[in-house]
């Protein structure tokens, strides 16, 4: 293993942490309706749990309403129940094989709570990035101990890892700030 391999590994793993944060933030509901909000809602379909998007067509009707058009009539009740029991706080209305999902307006208190969740997700991502930095630095120290690289190469490698870490943390801060602004807009 070389310094460049350690750096590449750390870079790819940090990128995956940022992608995981983006996925987590996309599940946090803002005041507007978007089809992706139901992505993590699972329904029982012939014995196996599948996302709503695999048994129905989810579309945005307007800023406050989603429409869920199920492909099989017998799935309408199952999908409606899954949406109602999800942690999103939504109350779907069934109309035949079509389900209307009104998005309730967020109260100021709920917006603050959501911002706390966003900050918590951001902190978790930063902790993951710092753990990756520590692991990369330990790998560099092991390379020096095994006499595969010099101490100067180790120092340069640690500087590169620190730059990757700083860049990743800055991107996390930017994502968190964007999401908070999105939540606070009425």
Explain how this protein is built:
57% of the residues lie in helices and 16% in strands. By secondary structure, the protein is α+β, with helices and mostly antiparallel strands. It has two domains: 3-27 and 107-184, Ribosome-recycling factor (Topoisomerase I, Chain A, domain 4), CATH 1.10.132; 35-102, Gyrase A, domain 2. The strands form two sheets. It has a four-stranded antiparallel beta sheet, with helices on one face. A two-stranded antiparallel ribbon has the order 1-2. A hairpin with a 2-residue loop joins strand 1 (42-45) and strand 2. Helix 1 (3-26) packs antiparallel against helix 3 (108-145), helix 1 packs parallel to helix 4 and helix 3 (108-145) packs antiparallel against helix 4. It starts with a helix and ends with a helix.
Write the layout of secondary structure elements.
Elements: H1 3-26, E1 42-45, E2 48-51, E3 56-62, E4 65-70, H2 76-85, E5 93-95, E6 98-102, H3 108-145, H4 151-184
Helix pairs in contact: 1-3, 1-4, 3-4
Q: Which keywords apply here?
A:
Gyrase A, domain 2; two-stranded antiparallel sheet; 2 domains; protein biosynthesis; 186 residues; 6 strands; alpha+beta; 4 helices; Topoisomerase I, Chain A, domain 4
